[in-house]
Automatic annotation (TrEMBL):
<dbReference type="Pfam" id="PF00561">
    <property type="entry name" value="Abhydrolase_1"/>
</dbReference>
<dbReference type="InterPro" id="IPR000073">
    <property type="entry name" value="AB_hydrolase_1"/>
</dbReference>
<feature type="domain" description="AB hydrolase-1">
    <location>
        <begin position="18"/>
        <end position="240"/>
    </location>
</feature>
<dbReference type="InterPro" id="IPR050266">
    <property type="entry name" value="AB_hydrolase_sf"/>
</dbReference>
<keyword id="KW-0378">Hydrolase</keyword>
<protein>
    <submittedName>
        <fullName>Alpha/beta hydrolase</fullName>
    </submittedName>
</protein>
<dbReference type="GO" id="GO:0016787">
    <property type="term" value="F:hydrolase activity"/>
</dbReference>
<dbReference type="InterPro" id="IPR029058">
    <property type="entry name" value="AB_hydrolase_fold"/>
</dbReference>
């Protein structure tokens, strides 16, 4: 555990070498990276962290902005005496990684966005986040069940039944305050597409063909006229479950060159 502004933050730290920080998404926690971290730790020092209000990390406020999360990450890597990191963010973790890269560019060795967009929420998406917050206040378990179910298509639900059950059980541990604070933070996040064009470090986006949360066409548009590498994998939003080996291979190849 690490103490950040009187808030307990849970993290793991394994392996030796250049540092790779793995950042989970909304309703997830550091455990989603367990298999990935185990493999990457054979070559790198791998840090996983529970974001504010998720997993075993405490809530910090009513809104956890992406900048709040990034500041917490910076405090953690400073505590661990790390200077440069490769940062990999899944979904909301990608938004946090982008905020970190904007606030602390000198500390970024390379940046990977996994099923994540550099764009801000559309007006429609902001309205939907507001509606989600109202649902969470009334029945958080029903919201989590619905939200996690929508991350996977019917084929995935059959093929990865056990993994999705574990994923959902873990998501149900997320405190109501943590869910609302994250939704508020995502709703108000900045557009950071400029980083894809001007970020002075190697950048990779991994997108899924059938991602219903982050449409593939949006990602293709974002990487146009940039030096961002784009890798496309089959399946839906949680590619660490649906395409574990493919994602690991892509990450390993990118980090071997840029990590």
């Amino acid at each position: 555990m690490f103490n950040y502004k009187n808030t307990a933050i849970h993290y793991t730290d394994t392996g030796k070498g250049n540092a790779v920080v793995l950042v989970h998404g909304f309703l997830e926690d550091a455990s989603m990276w367990q298999k990935t971290a185990k493999e990457l730790a054979k070559r790198y020092r791998v840090i996983t962290v529970d974001l504010l209000g998720h997993g075993k990390s405490e809530c910090y406020g009513y809104i956890h902005t992406m900048e709040d999360q990034a500041d917490m990450l910076f405090a953690l890597i400073s505590h661990l005496r790390l200077r440069k990191i490769s940062i990999v963010g899944h979904s909301m973790g990608g938004y946090v990684a982008l905020a970190f890269a904007e606030l602390y560019p000198d500390n970024v060795r390379s940046l990977v966005l996994l099923n994540a967009s550099a764009q801000a929420d559309s007006e429609e998406r902001k309205i939907n986040r507001g509606r989600a917050i109202e649902v969470v206040k009334k029945n958080s378990d029903a919201f989590i069940q619905m939200a996690t179910r929508n991350l996977f298509d019917d084929k995935a639900h059959k093929k990865f039944k056990k993994e999705i059950a574990v994923f959902t059980t873990q998501a149900l541990q997320t405190p109501v305050q943590g869910i609302i604070a994250a939704l508020e933070g995502m709703k108000t996040r900045m557009d950071r597409e400029a980083l894809l064009h001007f970020g002075p470090y190697p950048k990779l986006m991994i997108a899924s063909e059938n991602d219903t949360i982050i449409p593939i066409k949006d990602i293709k548009e974002q990487v146009e006229n940039t030096d961002v590498s784009l890798e496309i994998v089959p399946g839906g939003h949680v590619s660490t479950i649906e395409q574990f080996q493919k994602v690991l291979d892509i990450l390993s190849a990118f980090l071997k060159k840029n990590g």
